[in-house]
Design a protein that fits this description.
By secondary structure, the protein is of the alpha+beta class. Helices cover 52% and strands 10% of the residues. A five-stranded mixed sheet has the order 5-2-6-7-8. The chain has a two-stranded antiparallel ribbon with strand order 1-9. A hairpin with a 5-residue loop joins strand 6 and strand 7. Helix 9 (190-201) packs across helix 14 (315-332), helix 11 (242-252) packs antiparallel against helix 12 (263-279) and helix 13 packs parallel to helix 16.
């Protein structure tokens, strides 16, 4: 099993990897199908189902789908160009994707939120259709956005297709147990094994430049969030708090007035900065999702800025270790809030961050596995219940607490020798089972939990 660090961490846009990035990617794939088809097309339609329908407006799923059908992609997204396209669409009811004739599209009629028809493959389902001049559907495909910006067609999902279609890698671990066995046999760290896998499919130079870019985008996102205030979009009138908290923390530095627990505020503010940017539709990196995008950058920023002896030379190892753990979670359970609740998003992110921090602070592979298990274990059962479907409440603060748990888990693991009662594999399987048993209303539908118990207007 191989999942590249560049698949686990993808540059994209907020507010949601599964509800914004995924539909945009699906629409781009549908355009490729249209380009390869012998038919001539005159229009397109989209039908959103399940969680994509219930929380689609709050997650800008409709906007993302439309822009995807216009030719936009998350990693090259230009907001100014997007606004120009949407303004033109409002007047002409036409989309003009590259290499295709103009396509009729009326957002009010052709963007359908189907709350009643559940698609069986996954909670995040959508159907894209292309029509001829008479309005008859001549091409149709069902897509599932399975979390973290990953997209599968109905056939791919049914066939169990994953993203690994290349040559065998040196260390193809599919479980934490296999990971530790291979590490002990090879006398390599988890990051070293992951690096060998990556370089077997690419080059050391590409890995170095790619991971450097990922951290640059993550860190830039933190900094933008720390410098920006105001009200987040969406109608909840949630105030950005990261800048104010950061300004206060900066002012208190050197005044001998900060209590030891204030370090938790630093961890939280870094994470909140990212998720406020995400909620505003800014550029973020899936880690492993947009909704959980703040946990890992916050933990890495905490390491670099607050841990004595920290080195930027360890950034690549941090990201590789995190990606190895994230791959295990995705392969054996889920990173999708619509499939398994927020335990699959913030819980997975905390496990990845805890493992990565433990590794760069000198932890053994056994301690790294222990750190991941501790962090994930204490997110089990966490529901995904965004108020009004917006990735704001409780999502922004939840990332801050996820970062705190990640650091605590790494610290606890480093205090031990790596032996512990509950293996990471058992914890991941427990998360999978818990997600399967969880009521649908607690899985990113905004039909339960805080979403129905907090006034949202």
């Amino acid at each position: 099993m191989f999942l590249s660090v560049f698949e686990m961490f993808k540059v994209g846009i907020g507010p949601s990897s599964s509800h914004t990035m995924g539909p945009m990617v699906a629409a781009a794939r549908f355009l490729d199908m249209m380009r390869a088809s012998p038919f001539e097309f005159a229009g397109v339609r989209a039908s959103l189902h399940g969680s994509l329908a219930f929380t689609g407006v709050g997650h800008a799923t409709d906007r993302a789908t439309i822009l995807g059908l216009a030719g936009f992609l998350p990693d090259t997204y230009d907001n100014a160009k997007a606004e120009t396209v949407l303004a033109a669409l409002a007047k002409t009811h036409q989309l003009t994707p590259p290499e295709l004739a103009p396509l009729a599209f009326d957002p009010k009629a052709d963007m359908i939120f189907d709350y009643d028809t559940k698609l069986e493959g996954h909670a995040n389902g959508m159907i894209l259709m292309a029509t001829d001049a008479q309005g008859d559907v001549t091409l149709r495909e069902t897509f599932y956005s399975i979390g973290g910006g990953f997209v599968m067609t109905e056939a791919e999902l049914a066939a169990g297709k994953n993203t690994d279609e290349g040559a065998p890698v040196p260390y193809p671990f599919k479980s934490a147990a296999e990971m530790l066995e291979m590490s002990n046999a090879s006398r390599k760290s988890i990051a070293q094994m992951k690096r060998a896998n990556e370089e077997s499919r690419g080059s050391a130079a590409k890995l170095k430049s790619g991971t450097a870019r990922l951290w640059q985008v993550m860190n830039d996102c933190i900094n933008r969030g720390l410098e920006t205030d105001g009200i987040l979009p969406g109608g909840l009138n949630v105030k950005r708090r990261a800048k104010g908290i950061h300004d206060a923390l900066q002012a208190e530095r050197g005044l001998n007035m900060q209590a030891p627990h204030t370090i938790n505020d630093w961890m939280s503010v870094y994470a909140m900065a990212v998720n406020e940017e995400n909620a505003a539709g800014g550029q973020v990196v899936t880690a492993p999702t947009n909704g959980a995008a703040g946990v890992l950058p916050a933990t890495l920023r905490y390491y670099l800025d607050h841990v004595p002896g920290a080195s930027e030379a360890h950034i690549e190892d941090f990201l590789l270790t995190a990606a190895a753990i994230g791959g295990l979670v995705k392969f054996n359970a889920s990173i999708s809030g619509a499939e398994a609740g927020c335990q699959a998003e913030v819980g997975s992110a905390a496990a990845m961050a805890a493992a990565a921090l433990c590794a760069v602070m000198g932890g053994t592979p056994e301690q790294v596995e222990n750190a991941a298990e501790i962090a994930l274990e204490h997110h089990l059962g966490m529901t995904c219940d965004p108020v009004r479907g917006l990735v704001q409440v409780p999502c922004i603060e939840r990332n801050g607490l996820g970062a705190i748990k990640a650091v605590s888990a790494a610290s606890l693991a480093l205090r031990g020798d790596g032996t512990h009662l509950v293996p990471l594999d058992a914890c991941i399987e427990t998360m999978r089972q818990t997600g399967a048993d969880m009521s649908e209303k607690y899985k990113e539908t905004s039909l339960g939990g805080l979403a129905v118990n907090v006034p949202n207007c």
